[in-house]
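WARN retry 2 of 3 for item q-0093 after timeout on previous attempt; input resubmitted unchanged.
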Amino acid sequence: MNRDKELLDLTNEIHDAFAEIRLPKDVNISDGINIDHPDMETVFRGMHWRKLTLEFILEYNMAVCYFTPVAFRFYLPGYLRLILENPDDAFDVADWLMYYLTPSTKQDVERLEASEREAYEEGMIEKEAYEKLLNNPIQQRDTDYHNNLFREIISGLTSRQMGTVRESLEYMDRYFPYDYGDKVKKALEHF
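OK item q-0093 returned
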């Protein structure tokens, strides 16, 4: 099958598999304070996953880090579609998505902390923002918290949705192995 046809079929499957998913009005979208975009809750509240654009997810590139499990499941199809259609532009967003589609290990937490510390030491993160990261009780600093979040995210997906996520990950692995490499392979183990 040619790649364009495969992508079209896959985006149609994403649309169909997630067609009935709803975001209840009384559910929080954000699970914490997004220091980059404090308006996240308001902005995403009126946005359906089908209406997400590349420009929007790039502007709110850290949003997946703050989604509640219900919001993550609701926006997942939109993110998948945009990442598949724009792999080069959506690389950073895809990286975060892979993180939340994969259980965590102690080494993952250590790498995250080291990268944040390095960013602070190099002046890329202000002291106040760095301290918020370290002191945020919701911050995904331990494997138990992250793994519970991962289980809560995937437990709400139907078997068809799980299969569609798997197909999306397989497509990424097939066509963008140098971009996503082990992260996609690791996520595939759980779908």
